[in-house]
């Protein structure tokens, strides 16, 4: 099945990355990862690269520069991961994404026969169980390498007939898709990579337009993110100003350089309810999930009094149990 590109700059970027990794096929997966990290200035990069590694790093650096010039800097890192995954045939990303809540909800509100667009799908980890249930699925992602790998996985699992389309685009390309094109849109583990809550809102509005019946998506929570600041599990250092920035803007500070993270967007449960309503959807269930790694942390007590007040509202409000969870999953139907 051919990949349909919704963005010509992304097509070029993914081709350049695929060529770079396939030109380095004698490297092990570990060496390829080290080259990726070198390009992102992360530890673990190859210290004394041999010729092939040096060449791969050079090609990836050129692709990164071109991606930035095309306005694709935000997706570059994931496109590299996808290209490496396609070159090696391996990607073992298996986040806890409350998958059973997603599939049970869609089975109830959008029973088969039905179509589902999996946005920022990766290799289809969240939608393949639906395909196995008889749903027709389409995968949308900015990393073409993941889409290629998904086709192979679908073949292996006997699900090729259920895979209707492979669309390569960024969230900014969603307006190219028609209204009510799918019964449901799914977007898991991804939308918070958008660098502002406003961009998340725009993306959710698009999902709501493209789906005729239901959307399901998750975000990172403000309090969950603050509670993890500075811990080994967090991409972000602790500081009261970082906590304040998250509380007031919903945007994290830049991540630790060694994790190669850009900023990401966070929401309180109340803000998420508001967002869903604004997109013309009805929130049927809001699920908090993810491990609360930081129960014993003293981070909240280290905040100055004024910030503690904001935090206390989240800790004690009606949504306290949800707000404490690292991630919030919104299960929505179209408002009539
Ligand atoms: C953590 S993975 C989640 C994949 C899949 N939904 C899952 O749960 O297994 C994040 C995915 O988001 C995609 N992604 C990140 N930013 C994106 C953007 N701006 N537009 C489209 N896809 C994006 C990445 O390529 C990657 O496949």
Automatic annotation (TrEMBL):
Residues 116-210 form the Methyltransferase domain. It comes from marine sediment metagenome. This is Methyltransferase domain-containing protein. Pfam families: Methyltransf_25 (PF13649). Transmembrane segments: none annotated. Gene3D superfamilies: Vaccinia Virus protein VP39. InterPro entries: Methyltransf_25 (IPR041698), SAM-dependent_MTases_sf (IPR029063).
């Amino acid at each position: 099945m051919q990949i349909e590109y919704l963005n010509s700059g992304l097509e070029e970027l993914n081709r350049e990355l695929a060529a770079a990794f396939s030109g380095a096929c004698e490297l092990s997966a570990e060496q390829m990862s080290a080259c990726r990290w070198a390009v992102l200035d992360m530890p673990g990069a190859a210290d004394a690269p041999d010729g092939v590694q040096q060449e791969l790093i050079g090609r990836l650096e050129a692709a990164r520069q071109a991606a930035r010039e095309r306005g694709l800097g935000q997706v570059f890192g994931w496109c590299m991961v996808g290209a490496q995954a396609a070159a090696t045939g391996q990607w073992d990303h298996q986040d806890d994404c409350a998958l059973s809540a997603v599939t049970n909800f869609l089975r109830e509100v959008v029973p088969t026969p039905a179509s589902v667009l999996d946005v920022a799908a990766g290799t289809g980890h969240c939608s393949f169980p639906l395909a196995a249930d008889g749903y027709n699925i389409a995968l949308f992602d900015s990393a073409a390498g993941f889409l290629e790998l998904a086709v192979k996985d679908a073949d292996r699992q006997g699900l090729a007939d259920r895979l209707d389309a492979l669309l390569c685009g960024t969230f900014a390309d969603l307006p190219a898709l028609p209204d009510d094109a799918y019964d449901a849109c799914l977007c898991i583990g991804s939308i918070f990579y958008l660098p502002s809550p406003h961009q998340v809102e725009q993306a959710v509005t698009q999902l709501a337009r493209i789906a005729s019946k239901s959307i399901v998506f998750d975000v990172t929570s403000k309090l969950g993110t603050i509670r993890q600041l500075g811990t080994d599990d967090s991409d972000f250092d602790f500081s009261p100003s970082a906590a304040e920035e998250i509380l007031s803007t919903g945007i994290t500070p830049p991540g630790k350089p060694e994790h190669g993270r850009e900023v990401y967007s966070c929401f309180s449960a109340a803000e998420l309810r508001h967002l869903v309503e604004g997109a013309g959807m009805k929130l049927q269930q809001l699920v908090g999930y993810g491990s609360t790694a930081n129960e014993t942390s003293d981070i909240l007590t280290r905040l100055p009094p004024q910030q503690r007040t904001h935090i206390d509202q989240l800790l004690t409000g009606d949504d306290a149990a949800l707000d404490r969870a690292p991630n919030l999953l919104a299960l929505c139907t179209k408002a009539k």
